Amino acid sequence: MKKLITYIQSLAFYETLKHGSVYTIAFVVTQFISVVSLPIFTKLLQPADFGIYEVFNNTVRVLGILVSLNLFNGFYRFYFDENLDKQDLMRYVLRTSLLSFFISVLVLWLFQRPFMELVSLPTNLLAWILLAVFANIIFNFFNTYNTAQRFSTQSGIWQIISQLFRVVTAVLFVIYWQKNYEGRIVGENLILFILSILIIIVYFRNYIGINDHISKTHKKEILSYSVSFIPIGLSGFALGYLDTIMINNFEGSHDAGLYSYAYKFAVIYSGVTTSFITANRPKLFELLNQHNEVAVIAQMRSMFKMVVALSALFIFFAADGGKILALNKAFYDGLHLMPILILSYIFSDINEIYSFYFHYEKKVKYFYYSFAVSAIVNFVLNLIFIPKYGYVAAAYTTLASYGFMMICTYLICKKIVTMRVPAAIRFVDYFIIIAIVLILNYFITILVANIYLQITIKAVIYLIVISYLWRNILQQFRNKLK
Questions:
Q1: Among 57, 64, 137, 299, which is least packed by CB within 10 angstroms?
Q2: Domain layout of the chain by residue ranges
Q3: Could you write out the three-class secondary structure of the chain?
Q4: What is the pLDDT of residues 249-306, one digit of tens each?
């Protein structure tokens, strides 16, 4: 066992695997806390309270990106510029974001009535929106601060702590103060605001100040880069919720609920893969700075392996997990869409891997081309097919839109990126494995009636897939044992 651990630690992909695993564990734990708390809130609150709560959270997420000028993403990119002092960079972006926030507070307060009417929220929630946006900005900076420096354990611990505290505080406020949306919103965001102040005191106190040594040229470049990425920051939000909104409008809330439940598992899959992709980015920055093309390709192949391994796991077993967690057969009807939705996010993962080159070379505008195609395809196809075929069509339109985004990003990368971009042919074996897994899952589900036999067959095939993906590591380890 000690030899196995030593060998794994010697792998070039070990750092990504280590930090990605921490991010994944934190993500799984926070999701578990959310799932466990859901029955409590459904017992205490009414559906209308949930509606106001979701609109509130979505408003905060959007404002968190707009009001901060997206500078936390600018910090992440420019952190890897060797000619910039890290402390000066953090001081500049944090100061500028908070200045933009306080200006926005004044504007929103002056126009509070039209703004709250626009988002369809009670006026008394504006103060809590502003506090929540402040906390959102601080946590966004804290996450990028941890990711850039590979403080994965610190990041994971804080994610779990903040999620646990917000749920416990919200439950207490609902029980003992207001048994409606206000109790939950105030409880969650009061504790998040307190935690954000604690983060500033403990971690960011050295970055509070007006002096830095960053040139005006660099400041302009950082600000321009960050602001230009605002639509990208909002893109996932737009694509992720557009389908559900249109299903609700065309087919009603029942079908929207079925689709949302299946979609949740695809989002969980995406959260896990994003953890590893995020953990891998600092290493890619280093290798690209060194112009180490061979190592870059090796890292990308390792990321593709991880995507294949995780996607195969979700394709085979997500629907079974959905049945176990549903506790209600009414949700079973949408579970057959999971493989299609997961394939959509596989395309999204590949798009994310290649779009990294846009981030590295600061060619932000080219991302908009692929995103624009994806958004238009998604909207038009939904408009045509959801009224005809119902919520099932939304899964396929999602697949088509992410597929177009992936293809556009790849083609643009090959054409405009100055560095040598690995050709898709280098990863064709992984695409074939995903296709085989999808086909086998389809026929096993149809032809094998016994659920336990289904799971056993899928488990055996999955072990074969894992063994094939890491066959070189297994072979090298066997050789070391001889």
A1: 57
A2: 15-228
A3: CHHHHHHHHCCCCHHHHHHHHHHHHHHHHHHHHHHHHHHHHHHHCCHHHHHHHHHHHHHHHHHHHHHCCCHHHHHHHHCCCCCCCHHHHHHHHHHHHHHHHHHHHHHHHHCHHHHHHHCCCCHHHHHHHHHHHHHHHHHHHHHHHHHHCCCHHHHHHHHHHHHHHHHHHHHHHHHHCCCCHHHHHHHHHHHHHHHHHHHHHHCCHHHCCCCCCCCHHHHHHHHHHHHHCHHHHHHHHHHHHHHHHHHHHHHCHHHHHHHHHHHHHHHHHHHHHHHHHHHHHHHHHHHHHCCCHHHHHHHHHHHHHHHHHHHHHHHHHHHHHHHHHHCCHHHHHHHHHHHHHHHHHHHHHHHHHHHHHHHHHCCCHHHHHHHHHHHHHHHHHHHHHHHHHCCHHHHHHHHHHHHHHHHHHHHHHHHHCCCCCCCHHHHHHHHHHHHHHHHHHHHHHHHCCCHHHHHHHHHHHHHHHHHHHCHHHHHHHHHHHC
A4: 677 656 766 676 677 778 778 877 877 777 677 777 777 777 777 777 778 888 888 8
